[in-house]
Write a structure and sequence with these properties.
By secondary structure, the chain is mainly alpha-helical. It has one domain. The longest helix has 15 residues. The N and C termini lie far apart (32 Å). The relative contact order is 0.24. This is YkgJ family cysteine cluster protein. It comes from Marinicrinis sediminis. InterPro entries: Puta_zinc/iron-chelating_dom, UPF0153_domain.
Length: 85
Amino acid sequence: MECRIGCAACCSVISISSPIPGMPEGKPAGVRCVQLTEDNRCKLFGKPERPEVCSSLQASIDMCGDSNEAAYAYLSMIEQATSPD
């Protein structure tokens, strides 16, 4: 499955603990990644400086659903279920 262009749910909803260029402490849940363009495209896509965690995340029916809203809802649920807080 390919990512839906302009969705960026995984770049906004989930936390990322590894450093990201421009976010050396990683990215908290619910915070938009600084590497997203205004139309929700990753500025680091295909570049070596893209974090491994981002490169390894693969789109799937379970995660992405059939809409951006479904992806946001699913990832929010997963983030809450796995959050140490």
